[in-house]
Amino acid sequence: MEKVWRFRLCFLHKGPNQIIRALRMLPICHFSSPKRLDVAGKLLEKMVETGSSPTIVTYTTLIRGFLKSHMVGDAFNVLSIMESKGDAPDLVLCNVLIDSLTKVGRYDDAIDVFVDMRSRKLSPDSYTFCSLLSAICSSRRFSLFPKLVCGLDIEADLLVCNSLLSYFCKSGFPALAVKFYKVMLDRGFTADKYTFVGLLSGLCKARRVDQAVDVYHGIVMNYPGQDAHIHTVLIDGLIKVRKFDRAISIFKKVVAERYALDVVAYAVTIRGLFMGGRTEEACSLYRQMKEVGLTPNEYTYNVMVSGFVKERDLNMVNLILQEMIEAKVRLSYNTVLRLSKFLCRPYHLNSVIELWIEMRNLGLISAEVMHELLPDEVVEGVKGDDGHITFSDAYSETDLHVETSGSEDFCDVVASIG
């Protein structure tokens, strides 16, 4: 990037012809990252000023960069400039618009782009189709799907099939999803992990637990060597619909069969044990995880703290916080909230308060979180050198549920690891 930057600067004092040649050699994509969009915009202006017409590729790259940074207005401005110059969006740009607008929550705009493709006589491809399905599923406007795709001729590749599986599950037709999955296999498609994940998570969300477990057994039997993610998806899906015993049973079978498991699989199962009131088993599994050589990650530690807070086990809260300090692991937003409620009560241990202060001083609790969740006087108290804090009960007396700290974070954890 440094070389590219110097390359651009060395031409800015040259004449129009040299600038045009330089800009043609220097793609705007180098500067279309969120931190460089200002540079990309200036490059585009310079191209126009010097009489060099930006190509559709240039416009597409810049529009993608703006949308990735949630700068929707700027993206539409670039699109308007492009169209005013007589350039119409091509298939690639339409696909970028549908996909990127969906990701920033502009579902109506994404669907409008798809509808406009017909008037532009652009034929959607499989990527268009999948991006449209994503917009429909994300907006939960499932009834639009038949109307929008009627008459389309799309080549059914694996990406399309996986998107359709996801649509059937999310729109409330899990039986159709299973049927379509079987048709895929009959037609010679080789299912991949996205196929399995979409089908298993969809069936669990639809509370088709028996079907989900049957499909899972078929996967591990017919497609040996699956990684930990497949097992974890089913276990997590069962936990989310509160089928704790079934989830723990699956986990134990996975361990017995010596299938691959990672720290996320253990953490998700530990969360399920806490949610099911099986605290001793959660502790045992936590120890087992470390014994097999898996180091607890941030998610695991936060699950443990939340679980013991729910059980009001002061000693274990103290122990896990000490481990987090030694490992330099941060408390999550939800765990801080839960712990702050816990410490407002009269039966907390002074040692837990001291650990709370130490974690805050080490940066394991962000100042922003402290100010957002706690009254100002509490935050000021944490800054004190004498270790004394007076917690005011700023929150209503509610049950502390460990599940709120985990289920919504699980996808992010898996995505970052997988």
UniProtKB/TrEMBL annotation:
Superkingdom of the organism of origin: Eukaryota
Alphabetical keyword list: Repeat
PPR repeat intervals: 55-89, 90-124, 157-191, 262-296, 297-331
Keyword Methyltransferase in record: no
Keyword flag Transferase: no
Matches recorded under NCBIfam families: PPR
Family: Belongs to the PPR family. P subfamily.
Protein name as it appears in the record: Pentatricopeptide repeat-containing protein At1g16830 isoform X2
Lineage: Eukaryota, Viridiplantae, Streptophyta, Embryophyta, Tracheophyta
